[in-house]
Amino acid sequence: MGSALPNFNAREVLRSMRRNIIFLSVIIATCLVSSALFAEEAKKEVTFVAEVNQEGKQVVEITGGEYYFEPNHIVLKVGVPTVFIVKRTGYMVPHNIKIDQPDAGMSFDVDMSKSGNTIEFTPTKAGTYPFICDKKLLFFESHKEKGMDGVIEVVE
Ligand SMILES: [Cu+2]
């Protein structure tokens, strides 16, 4: 009698663990499928060709959110002072915009805010350069992998 009770409990625990594992598997599978669908949707290319304004600057407004940049293909003229105004949509998720091309005059990592942050630089070399949001939550895919990336195309 002393051993019957623990055995019974162990079986019950195993059974409920099995139920929990199945439940968790269903939730994880649902998350994976829906995040794959979102990533698929985010992959539209939106091109913006910057024009030089009266002050001799090219100004680009960039919006970022879950999980995209718009525009995500930005065409700039080499040697022209550039202003990016970067704004975030959504509520909770933090985003940044990062480019690491010091040889081309573009090297920054700026948090995106609701009100918009300003980045000023001058592209110095023609070419195509990637920019990304490098945020990542725990074991989930990075924002870049989910679609938060784009290219700056610097032309002569
Ligand atoms: Cu992000």
Descriptive key words:
alpha/beta, 1 helix, Immunoglobulin-like, elongated, 2 domains, 156 residues, 25% helix
Q: How would you summarize this macromolecular structure in one to three sentences?
A:
This protein is an alpha/beta fold and 156 residues long. The protein is built from one helix and ten strands; from the N terminus they run αββββββββββ.
Question: What does this protein look like?
Answer:
By secondary structure, this protein is α/β, with parallel strands linked by helices. It has two domains: 1-42; 45-155, Immunoglobulin-like (Sandwich), CATH 2.60.40. It has one helix and ten strands; from the N terminus they run H-E-E-E-E-E-E-E-E-E-E. Strands 1-4-10-9 form a four-stranded mixed β-sheet, with no helix packed on it. Strand 2 (58-65) and strand 3 (68-70) form a beta hairpin. It is elongated. The mean pLDDT is 88. It binds copper (II) ion (CU). Residues 95, 133, 135, 143, 148 line the site of copper (II) ion (CU). The site of copper (II) ion (CU) has 5 residues, from loops.
Distance between the termini: 88 Å
In the CATH classification, which architecture of the largest domain applies?
Sandwich
What is the CATH class of the largest domain?
Mainly Beta
Shape: elongated
> Rg to the nearest angstrom?
24 Å
Strand content: 35-45%
The hetero compounds bound to this protein are: copper (II) ion
Measured as a percent range, the helix fraction is 25-40%
Average of pLDDT: 88
According to CATH, the fold-level topology of the largest domain is Immunoglobulin-like
pLDDT below 50 for ≥5 consecutive residues: which ranges?
none
- Number of individual domains: 2
